[in-house]
Amino acid sequence: MPKPSQQLSAKTHQRQNQKRQLQPLLENLHDAIALINNQGNLIDVNKRACQLFGLSRRALMKRSFSSFLTAFERESFAQSLRSGQSLIGELCLCSADRVQREVEYSLTPNILLDSHLLLLRDISQRKADMAAELRRQRQRIELFSEVTLKIRQSLQLKEILHTTVTEVQRILQADRVLIYQVFANGTGKTISEAVLPDYPTILDLEFPEEVFPETYQQLYAQGRVRAIADVQDSTFGLADCLVEFVEQFQIKAKLIVPIVQVHPQALSDQNQLWGLLIAHQCSSPRHWVEFELELMQQLADQISIALAQAQFLEHLEEVVETRTAELQEVNRSLQQEITDRKQIEAALQQSEEQLRLITNAMPVLIAYVDDQQRYRFNNKAYDDWLGQSPDAIYGSHLAQVWGVDCYPQMQPQIEAALSGQVVAYENEIVLKNGNRRSVDITYIPHRDDQQLVKGFFALTSDISDRKAIERMKDEFISVVSHELRTPLTSLHSALKILATGRLGTLSNEGQQMLAIADDSTERLVRLINSVLDLQRIESGQVIIDRQICDAANLAIQAAEAMQALAQQHGVSLVTQPQSVSIWADADYILQALTNLLSNAIKFSPQGKTVWLTLEQGQSEVIFRVRDEGQGIPADQLERIFERFQQVDSSDSRKKGGTGLGLTICRKIIEQHNGRIWAESFPKYGSIFSFTVPVLE
Ligand code: ADP
């Protein structure tokens, strides 16, 4: 068993052996290695450590490691050493020759008995490189943000290109930076340039197609970048055509990146070469570094974006221009429309004033009433009649203006007008001041473009005077007729007695005269009777006494009464009666029928037929008298129902008519709420029809 002292020396011996074996390896290690004792003094170092501390191995022995550290780091390192733990960190070493170095260290405590291993790696260069790279990156970012900002701020392509060349020239410290635009025909031109004052400018210089052949263009379009460190160096293969050019402009080195035009709407993904971003070095050849290449490429991309933007702007400007032109046109036509409208309004106002002047001067009520029965126009006569100003009436309802006495009488006709019918009627109105007036009222519906009734025009004229005259005239006729009838009847009787010959025989000539006198007297009596009949009906003296009667009976009675006259004229009278109950005054219907039959017989040539027929409708019976006579012209069909109207003025003489028969017929039928009318087919005859309501 060896003694402890023997044991210790054996250990030391073993350790020294290990150390000797490791020595060459540690010596040649790229990193610095130092062993320090518990006090922090250096007890062993390798060659790299000597370089790092700037002292020889001997000079370093027993020197405190902390003496190479700053005061602050010295304290923290001493603490780390005391903790006895492995450590990794960074320190700033100040070597003996006063050079400061950034080092990365790792401390492994007690690697040998009471000695600690310190591994040091000089990272100063790495840090400096990183700082330089960071600086470059910051510069690049600054440049990008500056150029990008300019692109955003400016939509002017020229300004953007100018900024790019100026900034690239500044950052790359190049002698000349330019933008060369390639045209469709292969020629090109320098359109923007930043050049140092010592060198000639090539701005606006145009190049023929040969300088930049299509094959080159295609290569650049595909993204080719050329970095020529020395134009004289044949390995760079400068095109022959460019040799003269580079010499002329003293170019020694050049860097070329393409600017491609991106078509956002292009179907193919093939981009078109728009131009080149070129940097020249004229002072000496230059080796272009990766960063410079990258910078140029990224700026060329920015220009591409600016180009697309400019193109878009151009398109936008075109659109704006077209839209502006369109808007201006719309504006012009609107202006015209406004002017036209103003003119129309002025014309309307003028014509409305004229209309108002004219209507105000008229003694009739003129108004326009809307579909809600409210006044929208009325003339001054309303003021005179109703004591209400046009302004007060405007917008008022008809019921409000006419009051409870008049409005209910007018209401059915107003409703008819608003349903689209032209209405004309006579009425008696009592005004608010108690005055009674006979009026003639006409309503004319007003329709819009869609034919919908929007209201009606109302014309009301005072016919009180005319009515009074008519009454006086009727009374006069009535009095005269009455006064004439009695002596005429006596005269007629006397003539009849004379004709019997009881009072003496007359010569042939005398008898002829007597016959004429008898005939004329008879016609006069008939005329007076007709006049009196009509006057009685019109004045309302006649009371129609309606009873249930059979239409067939009336037809038979009328035919029988006319049979003698028919035979006298050699005309056949045919009836086709049909039993239908009607609600009528039999005497008056008979009077109308006999009148129509007598006309038909009178106006039929000998040998012809007259028919009296009946037809039952839904709510009425139609009586028809048809003949095969001379017929009536179309324009006379309505007129013959007026007083004393005859188709031929000689009819009264030839046929013994008075021209009042049809007028009386119409009055009778109207009193029965029926209608009467004539139809005719000249040379084929006429049909006279009238309706009488059936008994419900
Ligand atoms: P008149 O007493 O003259 O017949 P009316 O009023 O009955 O009076 O008839 C008026 C006129 O109508 C007649 O004068 C005649 O010209 C014409 N008229 C009436 N009925 C007929 C008919 N059936 N055929 C042809 N003309 C007729």
Automatic annotation (TrEMBL):
Its EC number is 2.7.13.3. GO terms for molecular function: ATP binding; phosphorelay response regulator activity; phosphorelay sensor kinase activity; protein kinase activator activity. Keywords: ATP-binding, Coiled coil, Kinase, Membrane, Nucleotide-binding, Phosphoprotein, Transferase, Transmembrane, Transmembrane helix, Two-component regulatory system. Residues 18-82 form the PAS domain. Residues 156-302 form the Phytochrome chromophore attachment site domain. Residues 313-361 form a coiled coil. It holds the Pfam family GAF. It is an enzyme of class 2 (transferase). Residues 423-475 form the PAC domain. It is a multi-pass membrane protein. It comes from the Bacteria. It catalyses: ATP + protein L-histidine = ADP + protein N-phospho-L-histidine. It is found in: Membrane. Residues 479-696 form the Histidine kinase domain. GO terms for biological process: osmosensory signaling via phosphorelay pathway. GO terms for cellular component: membrane. In the N-terminal section; belongs to the phytochrome family. NCBIfam families: sensory_box. This is histidine kinase.
